[in-house]
Here is the input.
Amino acid sequence: MIYNVLWTGGWDSTYRVLNLVLDQGATIQPYYVNDPVRPSTEMEKKTIEKIKRLVVELDPSKEGHIKETIEIRKEDIPQNEEITALYHKLANSKWRLGDQYDWLPRYVHSSGIEKLELSIHNGDKAREIIIQDVVKVEDGNDSYYVLKEAVSMQEFKIFKDFRFPLLDITKLQMEENAKQRGYAHIMEETWFCHTPRKDGKSCGLCNPCKYAMEEGLGRRVTTPSTIDKLQYKAFKVRRKLKKIFN
Here is the structure.
């Protein structure tokens, strides 16, 4: 069996990759979405390749267990009015939902991928949305959640083509598990910041940086200067304009 995993090079998805490959001896097919308006794209791709090398250095028998990454251009994902309408209903309700929950379901639907894994964890805001509408599946030494057949809101159907293996675990629990299993040093190579500074450090201002601090991993986040804050505000304005005019 090959596991289809959305891998960003970040803490959560990397933990799942390492858990599958090093702990379970599984083979994974990683997927990565190229987002033209996110400055961290190249850093994320370099991180993924570095982690692949570190896995083989740690356990040479795992060479080939991580297949070549399938890269998707975000702008090439087909439109789907039904999925987008469901997404907007959720995004405009009491939950704040990132636009990845529009284009990711559209991609999976169009490509026919068998249950792409999303690394939504205990502490992730998206977990609050789906936790009452998923059911746990025990699969040998592995377990994950999938959407229930009968959902409480039709809008939740945008999650039907995904699996959620990390809903029960926090970032700090991942860290502790990685220490016990001997791959904490690989976890330290993960990347999370969406707007890295020119010196290669995290910005300390984007949402992933904020979430890392909120969830106990503040040691990995750079404290931003006044100039950093001004540059980040300017970036957000440019990004908003780019989305409008593209």
Notes: The chain has two domains: 2-191, 197-246. The first strand starts at residue 2 and ends at 6.
